[in-house]
Every structure is written in structure tokens, then in C-alpha cells.
Amino acid sequence: MIRIFSELAIGIKSLMLKPMQSSLTILGIFIGVASVIWLLAIGEGISDEAQKQIADLGATNIIIRTKKPSTQVTSENSGPMPYGVTREDREKVLRIPTVKDVIQIREFQRTLFFRDNRLDGRIVGCTPKYADLTHLEVERGRFLEDADLISAKTFCVIAEKVAERLFGYEDPIGRSIYLPDFEDYYTIVGVMKHREATGGIGGSLSGQVFENDMYIPITTLRRRIGDLDRIARAGTFSRDYVQLSQITVIVDDLNNVFSTYDHIMETLKAHAEMEDLAIVVPKELLDQAKRTKTMFMAFMAMIAGVSLVVGGIGIMNIMLATVTERTREIGVRRALGARQRDIIRQFLVETVALSTMGGITGVLGGLICPYVINALRFIIKTQSFSDNFFQITDLPEILQKMEPQIVDYSIPLAFGISVIVGILFGVYPAMRAAQMDPIEALRHE
Amino acid sequence: MNFAARVNSLHKEYFLKGETVRALRGVTFDIPEGDYVAIMGPSGSGKSTLLNVLGCLDRPTRGSLFLGESDVSRMDDDDLSRMRAAKIGFVFQSYNLIQQLTVLENIEVPLAYCRRLNAAGRQRCRELAEMVGLGDRLKHRPYQLSGGQQQRVAIARSLINDPYFILADEPTGNLDSKTTDEILSLFQELHEQGKTIILVTHEDEVASHTKRIIRLFDGEIAVDTALDGTSDTLLI
Fold this sequence. Notes:
The complex is a heterodimer of chains A (445) and B (236).
Chain A: H1 2-16, H2 19-56, E1 61-66, E2 82-83, H3 87-94, E3 99-114, E4 117-126, H4 129-133, E5 138-141, H5 146-150, E6 155-159, H6 160-167, E7 176-179, E8 184-192, E9 213-217, H7 218-224, E10 228-233, E11 236-242, E12 246-251, H8 257-267, E13 277-280, H9 282-325, H10 327-335, H11 340-367, H12 369-382, H13 386-389, H14 397-401, H15 410-434, H16 438-443
Chain B: E1 3-16, E2 19-32, E3 36-40, H1 47-54, E4 62-67, E5 70-71, H2 77-87, E6 88-91, H3 103-113, H4 119-131, H5 147-159, E7 165-169, H6 177-192, E8 197-200, H7 204-207, E9 212-217, E10 220-224
Parallel strand pairs in B: 3-8, 3-9, 6-7, 7-8
Antiparallel strand pairs in B: 1-2, 1-4, 4-5, 9-10
Helix pairs in contact in B: 3-4, 3-5, 4-5, 5-6
């Protein structure tokens, strides 16, 4: 056992005779190992972020959103055609045994007024359950209550940013927001904490922005605003006759999601021809995301693997040169009693020492991945040159948000591979050295 | 009487550019323990070949070579290596120390190949370094030593495993006359301690320090002073 240490010490001494050569060789392995760890960490971070955003929608949920059919014709004479999810659809879906609840909303885009202040907001007619569904938290006051819905009160709850824009430092509770189109005042009973926008997930769900929201009871909306949305904007004139913008179906159990989906499709098959619904099943997206992740990670690992192989070739190259340079030494050692396998050992110890040092430094280099990525993002965000050159928001959203996570197994994996690379690519040069004729070798140089 | 080496009817042939070269054509001699022999001869005489065979670096085509009790002429590479490690001490013209090792580590090398590197072995290395006059330079590297000093290290190295004989190939070839004398004195000392020394040289000056001369010519022994009564070597 002690022999290995003394062999290692001698090996390292030999490597230190040519520090530049050895360093460059180690660099090759370092890059390979660090990139395995980096790429897997980034892949993990991206997958995690994607899955988190999907999971946010609720794995047990099925989201059915009203979509304006492309074929709709709006003309003054015939009047607008109703489309989208109806209240009757909701009743039907509620009757499906595996459905726990169906949460409904109706959205309008309108300008909100308070005194001289205005803001382009999103009016969301909803129920108290909506806050839980979208993980909204009360900052001040309260969210909507069942009593508000039963009495169809003209109450509203606003997002933090709306409070800031319209009311500045004043306390908005008790004040009223004016909607000129409907000649209506809505009294504010609560302010919700700021909620980050969700990313646009795959499927037909674009990102949701919560910052300009004003929540009113859906019963109030139905009574005082109705289902018809007339918008005149910049010369265009559109009329949308929609009952519900979206319903979110909550399934009782994860395992029933897909069967419930089939059931729903059957229930709502009348809509199929109209193409006025967009259905998103987060669980399906989640499963898909998991499958993609595996492929993605394997792909990343392969790329990193390539660079490890290149590093190994570097080792072989250097070792072959070294063996030639040390022909005399090999001859001398043979004369002093080294067997062929002693020579092989000697050179293998050197290549493994090289590749292992590359492995250790590579692991350290890999571990700093999260710090470096965050530092890079920080620099891009705060440097003024970035205004002209490159902005943080130019990056795909998922890259802005994701946190690289060092994958557990990637460290021993990368390290283990670095040792194997040293052995694999060192064997050939070592054998060349061992098979030299000692007499020839002694004559060399 | 014990023999360090017994050579009987040694032949060595090899092929060079399609021709058979007969480097040794039936060489026979014995080397008793404690002998101090010079092997001489012009180039092409088979001197180097004999050196290589004696040193177990090459195998004879025909004939036998007994080192101690073993016939090495048919041994395989691994066994020959073991022989070299344990029973033969090489000293080269250009010293051939290993550059990245210290003086002490250089002397240890044959020990390592015999798997006898332990505290006792290390102590013997120090003692041998002491004996050749380099006890105070154990941690020096070869490039920090003069030619004569390097050769002393090589001689210490050759003795570490208590070999059957020291095999020295032109040991003073790269040294000036003063240093040559010093090295030859060292050899004389070793001889007086009872060590067996085989020295290959082309210089009569150097050969005159030895007790016996074997001259080769065209692959055969032309002169063996042990046999013609001109040497002190007794062969019973």
C-alpha cells in the first residue's frame, strides 16, 4: 500500500519536470469534467423551472379557456355569435363524479379610473376560490367573500400595483374605482400582494399577468356588465359574447386526471366544431416535461462526454511524447530490474495522476456554476452598457428564472470518468514504453 | 570455490539487414567471486554483446550462462528482470541517474524493483551513500552533482542489492583524469572488500588497474590472463 504512495510521489515529481505540459493536459480534463457538471446542473435547473411553472397550474387541474374562433364573423347586422365556455358547460362538468370543483372566471380588459389617475387593467369576475387557485395572498383588507357574491355587491379587490398607480400613498380601502363604460363605482375591500407573472407554458396557455388585476364578484359582473364585451379601440370595433373566460377543473385524484379529461371532452363535444376552447392539462405537460428532461440531460451529458474524450486524447498525445523523451530513463530502469509491468504501472500512475487532478479541479470548477451564472445575470442586469448592447429581458424567460442545481450523481460520475479516462488513454503509451528493447533504449540520445 | 558467473560456449547471432551477424562465437570463461576483470577488444569484437548477455539484457542464441546457481540463458523477460534487480549492479559510462529523483532515491531504485524498500533498506542506502563519500548530499538532484559524484551515486546504486557482480561499461569514459583516478580507487576499495567487478573498457590505462584481462576478437576470446599465467586470478 505504501508503495502506491511512493509511486505516486515519484509520478508527480516526473510530471512537475514539465509543469506547462502537465498543466495544459490537466486543463483538458478540467474542462471536460466541469462541463459535465455545468451542463447537467443547467439542464436540471431549466427542467425544474419548467416543471415548477407547470406544477403551479396544478397537477390535478384541467384548464379550459375560451378562445376566439378564427372563423368568427362580426357584423353589425347579424350580431355577435356567442362562443366559449358557458355556465351550462360548467354545470355539466360539475356533475362528472371525479370532478371536485370547477372554478370560473370572466375577464375584461378595461381602463380603471380614480380621480385623475387611470390604469389599463384586467377586470376579473371571479369567486373567493380564485385566490387559492392562483396562490394570491392578501396584503391588506380581504379577498372576495361568498356574501359578496350572493348579494352581487359592487365590491372589488385590487392588485398591489393597481393600488400604487391609482392611489399612490393613500390607503385604497374604502375608496372606489370608476369604470366609465358601465358607469359603475366599485368599492375596494382589499389589496392583494404582488404575484409574479407565470411563464407561457406549452399548449395553448399564454403567460398570465396578475399585476393589473381588479377582482369583482362574478355575479356582480353578470348582473351589471353582462356577457357582451364591446370594445372600440383604435378604429377597430369588436364584440365578444362570452359567458366564461375560463374554467379550472379540479380533479379529485392525480390518477383520475386523464380519465376525467376524456369525460370532459365527451361532455363538451359540441364545442369541437367551433374550435372555441383551449384545453390545457398540466399533468400531461408535466409528464411530457419529465420525458423531455431525460432526453435533454442525456444529450447534455453526451456533449460534455465528447469534451472529456478530447481531454483524454490530449493525455494520450502528451504521454506518447513523454515516453519518447524518456526512452533513456526507461532503458535504465529496465537495466536496474524493472519488469514490463513495472514500467506500465509507472506511466499509468502518471496518467491517472494527471486525469485525477483534472477531475478534482473540474469538480471544483463545476461546483461554482450557480454562483457564476447568478453573477453573470447580475452583471447583465445592472451594467449600463447593457442598455444598448444586451438586456436581461432579451434572454428567454426560463433562463432568467432558473436556478442551476448541481445534480448529486454528476460529481462522482464526472470524477469517476476522469479517472477512467486517465487509465484508458494512458494504457497505450504505457505499453509502448514497456515494450521497448532495453538495449536500444539505453543507446538512445 | 564460488563463482559469480560461469560462461560456457556462448553464441550470439542476430539478423541485420538480411544478414546473420555472429557477434559471439563460443565464448567460455569463469568468474570466481572477488575477481576484478577487464573485458577489452576493438569495436566489432563482441564486447558490447557480451556485456548485454552478462547483464541479462539479452539472451544467448546458444550456450549457457550461470549466475550463482541459476542458468539464465533460457529465462523469460520477467525472470531476467528479477535477476537484474537483485543480482547485477550496472554502472554506465554516462551515469544514467534518474533526473527527477534525489541521490537517496536513486540508490533506492533497484530495491523498489525487488520489493525490498523498507526502513532497513533505506538505512542501507544511506550507508552506501556514506561509503562512496556522498553522505551529506542525500537530497541533491543529479544536475547538482559533478560527473564524478554522479558516478559514485551510480556505484552505490549498483551495490544496494548485494549483487553477484558489478558490471561497469566504460565507467570513466566521461571523466577527467583526476576523477578517473578517484573512481578507480573506489573500485579498488570495493575489490578489497571482496566485491566482484567486471569492467568493460578500451583503455589499457584503466585495464591496468584490474587483476585480470579478457580480450575479445571477432567474437572469441583472444587472451585471458587468468589462463596464461599473467594474472593473479586463481582458477582451480
